Amino acid sequence: MPASESKDRALVFGGSGFLGTRLLAALDSPVCEALSVSRNPGARPRTPNETIRDVAGDLSQAGVAETLIGLLQPRTVFLVAALARVGDCERDPGLARRLNTELPAEVARACKAFDLRLVFTSTDLVFSGEPPRESGYIESDPADSSQVYGRTKAEGESAVLEEYSSALVVRLPLLFGESVGRGLGASDSLLAALDRGDSPKLFTDEFRTPLDVDNAARALIELARKRESGRLHVAGPDRLSRHQFGERVVRARARPADLESLQAVTRADLGLADRPRDVSLDNSKAREILTTPLLSVSEALEKPRQT
Ligand SMILES: NC(=O)c1ccc[n+]([C@@H]2O[C@H](COP(=O)([O-])OP(=O)(O)OC[C@H]3O[C@@H](n4cnc5c(N)ncnc54)[C@H](OP(=O)(O)O)[C@@H]3O)[C@@H](O)[C@H]2O)c1
After folding, report:
1. Is the CB of 187 under 6 A from ligand 1?
2. Tag placement on the chain: N or C end, fewer CB within 10 Å?
3. Ligand 1 pocket residue status of 172, Cβ below 6 Å
């Protein structure tokens, strides 16, 4: 049997990023050939014995994603490439539109044409967080962010599902966990700041439902294999303020002295009262579908890291 028939082939657009790196690590196996596309493949941290194939491509150029899908012939496409930082999107709304809205539409068209499985990652920040909802947003709640990041991602979601109704859009929460020494994500960036001697300011009045990045990667792979479609909230079970989250991260590192370095602030203290107050996601639907458990922050931090 030719290799292409016996082995799954998964293409990760954005494989060098925080989530993409961990998704590739979880995909790479005797039963799956994992391919990564990013502008600078050299920036992707390697693990010993991995068999991941890297391809350089600038996805801001129209047609590049479609051409690569045609050439590489994956069975499954994970689109995690994005302009994923709120500040970058506000500074360059044109690039945000291109990467977060137009690129997803283009990838969805190509996946439909080749009959491929598509998983597109979106964000809790498609919601404004007002008025706050302690039970968390559900999938059918209307996206209402006024920020460029949330708006362009919400438009990307709609474009994907309009182009290809079999696609799956997974809204993710604040991600934390293994960033392979790069200080990326909510926990490693906090620990890196503490190691530099900083005293991070953490909001007591901004709430999320954080999820470990390796947990998110495993859930995305399970969902791709299950052929789910539509929108799904894959989030952790804890609704935590950024300050509560920071305390858990520091406690898990067993350096209690660092707790005193965390500064508890409100959004108003920093003149940032317009930041989304509570974009917690209700993960009930995902829990019904997944066998992969969605771990609490403490459960995830207690697990040995899997580099
Ligand atoms: N991190 C979080 O807490 C979080 C929370 C909710 C949702 N999400 C979603 O999860 C996904 C991944 O986020 P992330 O945090 O992993 O983002 P990230 O670390 O910023 O990674 C973005 C990826 O996109 C690639 N990329 C950006 N511009 C590109 C271009 N022009 N051409 C080719 N590749 C390009 C980057 O590679 P190069 O720069 O090397 O090209 C990188 O691999 C996004 O959909 C994001 O909206 C993330």
Report:
1. no
2. N
3. yes
Class of the 3-176+211-236+279-295 domain?
Answer: alpha beta
pLDDT above 90 covers a percentage of the chain that reads: 91
Tell if the pTM clears 0.85, that is, is over it.
yes
**Residue 124 in tokens:** 């809790």
Pocket test for ligand 1, best of 123, 151, 242 (most atoms within 8 A of CB): 123
pLDDT digits (tens, 9 = 90+) for 209-226: 999 999 999 999 999 999
Q: Which residues pair with 94 in a beta bridge?
A: none
Q: What mean pLDDT value characterizes the chain?
A: 95
- Distance CA(101)–CA(152), nearest Å, equals 6
The answer, yes or no, to whether any atom of ligand 1 lies below 6 A from the CB of 39, is yes
Over residues 103-133, the pLDDT tens digits come to 999 999 999 999 999 999 999 999 999 998 8
Cβ(175) to ligand 1 under 6 A?
A: yes
Domain residues of the chain, as ranges? 3-176+211-236+279-295
